[in-house]
Amino acid sequence: MALTNRYKSATGAGTAAALILVLVFGSPWYATWATENTDAGTAGGWFLQLLAWPRWYLDSDDSIQDILAADLKAILVVALTALFLYLLPGSQLARARGTLSQFFAGWASYIFAGAFAALLTTLIQSNPSLLGAFKAAGDGTTYGFFVGWIVGLVTLGSWRGTRS
């Protein structure tokens, strides 16, 4: 039996997309490749490096606080995406599936998730500061804005709530 959009919840689909984005592009292998093989001075290189923003680590020479903060940030991006997809009412109130409100709700969820994940994890990094938290939230917002459209596309046409 083939699965179609009518069997896919927007929250589940968007969360799965966020998980794949973070697992694949936030991996140490991709992040190293993007840093060494792309030019941040070009649009394509900048975007490929931006994809690696919620990096997670297996090992590093950084302090344990910074490693924990980076790993927690990657986890929070996924968890907060699920939370915001569930809470944003725009697509839940839309009369028809597949409307632009679903796309924008998915996209906005990823923007908010990136910003809040960065803001919260800055507090556990070594030498946290309010300015550092604001800058990190800006980085998370930038990441969510330029990558979140993927989550928006995945949630487009999905059903909301429970089916009987």
Automatic annotation (TrEMBL):
Ranges that cross the membrane: 12-31, 67-88, 100-120, 140-159
Superkingdom of origin: Bacteria
Alphabetic keyword roster: Membrane, Transmembrane, Transmembrane helix
Protein's name in the database: Uncharacterized protein
Species, as recorded: Catenuloplanes nepalensis
